[in-house]
Amino acid sequence: MTTVLTAPAAPRTPQARLRWALADGWTVARRDLIHWLRNPAVIAYQLLWPLMMVLMFGYVFGSAMVVAGGGDYREFLMPGLFGQTMMFGVATTLTAVSTNASYGVTDRFRSMPMSPSAVVLGRSLSDLINSALELAILIGCGLAVGWRWNQGPVRALAAVGLLLLLRFALIWVGILVGLMIKPEAAAAAWAPLFPLTMVANTFVSPEQMPGWLGALAAWNPLSATVAACRELFGNPGLGGDSWAAQHPILLAVAWPLVIVAVFLPLSVRRYRRLDR
Questions:
Q1: Positive or negative, the Cα torsion across 244, 248, 254, 255?
Q2: Among candidates 253, 34, 47, 229, which has minimal Cα distance to 136?
Q3: Are 125 and 25 in contact (CB under 8 A)?
Q4: For residues 197 and 53, is the Cβ–Cβ distance under 8 A?
Q5: Which ranges of 183-275 does DSSP label H, i.e. alpha helix?
Q6: Comparing C-alpha atoms, which of 32, 157, 142 is closest to residue 82?
Q7: Which of 120, 126, 39, 127 is nearest to 91 (CA)?
Q8: Which of 22-31, 59-68, 128-137, 266-275 shows the lowest per-residue confidence on average (mean pLDDT)?
Q9: Cα–Cα dist 137/24, whole Å
Q10: How far apart are CA 223 and CA 240, in angstroms?
């Protein structure tokens, strides 16, 4: 006697397809989170990296830094480190996506009777959860060295929300690039991220840079999120005559939405056209 296994039919209504995508996406996200938990070296890196960054920039370089307009440098620094950590998450995303695509994991998912968007949705969910945990660790490090939010918990949570919004937007950049390159190239993804996070208001104010470089730094999407966080946290470092410097919260929302609008459909399209 032969048993024939048939794949379940895809849902037909929009509500059913949404439930299907969310359920399958969470399954993939759980798989990615379990894989992360079974790599103690990665966990140790995520625990130690924020601590090293705080100590190096807060105490080693911070003794020579001057905040434009006055104020404690560590108060100025921490929102910049929060934003830089969200930006560096791009390398984590594209490395994982590139590795899965190159070793056949993505193809195996695509052969299963699951929602077509579940793989990229699951990756975005797992990376956002990892980034939230990493941000919590970094906030704890900041509190340990004397950084504080000075505008109340509601505005502080709004700042954290903007940081995670930036990370969510950059996840789709990482997914698209990860689907386009090999793991060997993904290992070098950190190289372009350093200048992108340095030509910003991460460690110094754009007003202290040469004119042309300060203009680039002021309009960097990372600068918008960092400046908005400084405003919401009540930390020093606000100011500047440019339109970008005067409207950081607006830009901190607008930039991620533009990035998502561009890179999310490109990522989904690239995923659907793999090996074609």
A1: positive
A2: 47
A3: yes
A4: no
A5: 183-186, 190-198, 211-218, 221-233, 243-246, 248-272
A6: 142
A7: 127
A8: 59-68
A9: 29
A10: 12
Give Cα separations from 35 to 122, 127, 249, 268 (angstroms).
Answer: 13, 12, 36, 23
Separation of alpha carbons 87 and 94, rounded Å: 12
Say what the pLDDT of residue 223 is.
93
Radius of gyration of the chain (CA): 21
User: Contact at 8 Å (CB) between 222 and 76?
Assistant: no
d(CA 141, CA 209): 28
Count CB atoms within 10 A of the CB of residue 51: 15
pLDDT at 189: 76
Are residues 213 and 186 in contact, defined by beta-carbon separation less than 8 angstroms?
no
Count of other CB atoms within 10 angstroms of residue 264: 19
Q: What are the structure tokens assigned to 237, written together?
A: 């470092």
- Residue 65 CB: number of other CB atoms within 10 A? 15
More confident residue, 190 or 139: 139
Q: Strand, helix or coil at 10?
A: coil
Location of structure tokens 């209504």:
13
Gap between the Cα atoms of 251 and 244, Å rounded: 7
The number of angstroms, rounded, from the C-alpha of 137 to the middle of its chain's C-alpha atoms is: 15
d(C-alpha 68, C-alpha 240), whole Å: 10
